[in-house]
Structure formats: C-alpha cells, structure tokens
Amino acid sequence: MPQHVIVGAGPVGTATALLLAERGERVRLLTRRGTGPEHPAIERVVADATDAARLAELAEGATALYNCAAPPYHRWAEEWPPLAAAVLGAAESSGAVLATASNLYGYGPVDGAITETAPLRATGVKGRVRARLWQEALAAHEAGRVRATEVRGADYLGAGTLTMLTAAVLPAALAGRRARVPADLDAPHSWTYVGDVARTLVAAAEDERAWGRPWHVPSAPPRSIRQLTSLACDIAGAPAPRLATMPRPVLWLGGLFDPLVRELRETQYQFRAPFVLDSTAATETFGLTPTPIEDSLAETVRALPGSGTGSAAPDRP
After folding, report:
1. I need a labelling partner for 83 at 20 to 30 A (CA). Which of 13, 77, 196, 242 fits?
2. Domain-located, residue 283
3. For the chain, what is the total number of helices (H) and then of strands (E)?
4. Which H helix or E strand runs over 126?
5. 182 and 110 assigned to the same domain
6. Phi, then psi, of 111 in degrees rounded to 5
7. Coil, helix or strand for 181?
8. Which of 190, 205, 204, 198 is nearest to 286 (CA)?
C-alpha cells in the first residue's frame, strides 16, 4: 500500500511526489492520463478524482492524501466542488490526513500583508469557491471526521507553472517584445516557489500542530512585476524589459473573446495594488524558509517554452 496518495501531477503535485519519493517513501500519483514523473517509488495511476468510490479505493491505507489538483481556470465553479467532495470523502474513509494546496483567492482584497487569520471575504466566483471548499474541510475536521489542513501560496514560480507572469509577461520580455500587463508594474507582489509549496504540504501533513488550520507557504520578500521581469532578463542575458500597463478597459474587452482573459478581471485587485503574503507562522512553526527568488526565477526561465529545457503546463491550485 502507498504511504502517500497525491491527486494531480501539475508542478505542485509533481514536486510533492518527487520530494516524498526521494525520501524513500511510496507514492501513488493519480491523474486522468497517468502522467507524472518517473521514479521507482512513484506509482502512476489513471483515475478520475471526481469518482468518489474509485478515489476512496485508491486512498485506502494511505497515511496522507494530498489534493494538488488544478481544474481548468475558467471552470472552477463547476469542477472544483465535486472533485473536492470526492477527495474529502476519501480522506474520511481512509483515515489519511488531508493536505490541500490552495491560494489566496478566498481572502478577497486585504489591506496590508495577508496572514492566515484574515477572514475569508472573497467577492469573486473563484475566491468564493476556494473559501467554501476550505470551510467544508474545516467543518469535517472539527466534527472529527477527518484531519485536514490547507497550504496557501501566492502566484507560482518554478518549472512548468502557468500564470500571467510565466505565460505572457516573461516570454514577451525575454524575446525583446513589449509586454502589456494588466497590473501596476511597481506594486509589491508576493511570489511562491512550487518546491516550497511541496515542502510545506508535507510538513503540514506530518505535524499534528498543522491540522485544523491553513498555512501560508514561506515565500521570498515581495518583488514588483517590473523588478521580477528585470531580474529574469538579467538571468537570461536578455536586454532590459519593455513593459507597459494595460488599462482595465482593454482587459475587459479582451475577456469578451477569451475565457481565460475574462477570468483575470476577478483578480485585478491582486495586481493593481500591493499584494503581500505573510508566511511568518509556517517559518516559526516548521522551521521552513523560502527558496531565494533568484533560484526559483532561474528555474522558471529555464523551463519556459523556447528555452530548450522544458515547456509550461497549467497549474493553478
């Protein structure tokens, strides 16, 4: 029987599977197509995680169940609830600790640095979905049905991540093209390395002090989009980036034709003002520190399409 069952093989699920496997532990990695890293300790299984009975069967005997799934960004409202319900049911039937990889959407706009004690006051669809899923898991935990925790990060850095920065800004800037960004280019913004998400997930699953509450992934000090893009160009040996702010009406019009662009409207508050994650609690509790942003950004740049070292794959927790 596997010690750990992971749902999803995006950048976070892959990093978590490899972290555990390289420690010598047995991992079962579930995806719709049987994808994921090759490793003797990783068993890749084809499974639909919304099939509650099948998921419960595959999780039987596991000590920890990691939800690293990533439904299509524009279909969260339809696809997250049944998937999360199946994972929660599998954790209950198997007795495995449930550790979920999540983000900061559930908080909605927050003045100042965001801590885990901030109330969940999301106003957008995706934020309300993430908030509700955690509230359901927490209710099950408090009722004694499961042992649950949630790990939250900001926009991801690392190989294979797909965000506004990695999908649009960096490819244009590194190619010497002007990048038009729907953001305040100089607002401080937190970025989270997927390897640090994996380390925090595993630490939270293994430590009783983590259960029954959320944790923020230790993340490097915030950098603005301009600062981060300039650093990426330095790393790649490219000319200084040419960046321009995209006005809100232009983003709105783009959303009329592209469902993914349409979803960016909801999260504009994260990019038009400071958006800073406070991860003090996880550092003090688990002794985890963030990977230097120079290292996580270098990995990101090497894996961008056209770099010759990899290609991006969607992963929004």
Report:
1. 196
2. yes
3. 12, 11
4. helix 125-142
5. no
6. -85, 125
7. strand
8. 204
- Residues linked to residue 4 through DSSP beta bridges, in sequence order: 27, 64
Exposure pattern of 155-188 as b/e (b: 16+ CB <10 Å)?
bbbbbbbbbbbbbbbbbbbbeeeebbbbbbbebb
Contact 218, 289 (CB under 8 A): yes
Ramachandran class of 123: left when φ > 0, alpha when ψ lies in -120 to 50, beta otherwise: alpha
Question: In this structure, are 171 and 99 located in the same domain?
Answer: no
The one-letter amino acid at 93: S
Question: In 3D, which of 275, 279, 163 has the Cα closest to residue 214?
Answer: 279
pLDDT score for 317? 36
Q: Are 164 and 264 in contact (CB under 8 A)?
A: yes
- Do 50 and 144 share a domain, yes or no? yes
Rounded CA gap, 172 and 136, in Å? 41
- Pairing status of strand 4-7 against strand 64-67: parallel
Q: With beta carbons less than 8 A apart as the criterion, state whether 303 and 311 touch.
A: yes
Which tokens belong to 272?
């038009």
Mean pLDDT of 122-146: 97
What is d(CA 294, CA 109) in angstroms, rounded to the nearest whole number?
28
Domain residues for the domain of 227 are 156-190+221-303
Q: State residue 2's pLDDT score.
A: 66
Do the beta carbons of residue 158 and residue 193 sit within 8 Å? Answer: yes
- The tens digit of pLDDT for each residue in 74-114 reads 899 999 999 999 999 999 999 999 999 999 999 999 999 99
pLDDT tens profile 159-179 = 999 999 999 999 999 999 999
Cα end-to-end distance, the chain, whole Å = 27
Same domain, 129 and 176: no
How far apart (Å, rounded) are the C-alpha atoms in residues 275 and 113? 7
The angle subtended at Cα 168 by Cα 173 and Cα 255, nearest 5°, is: 140
Rounded distance between C-alpha atoms, residue 144 and residue 20, angstroms: 27
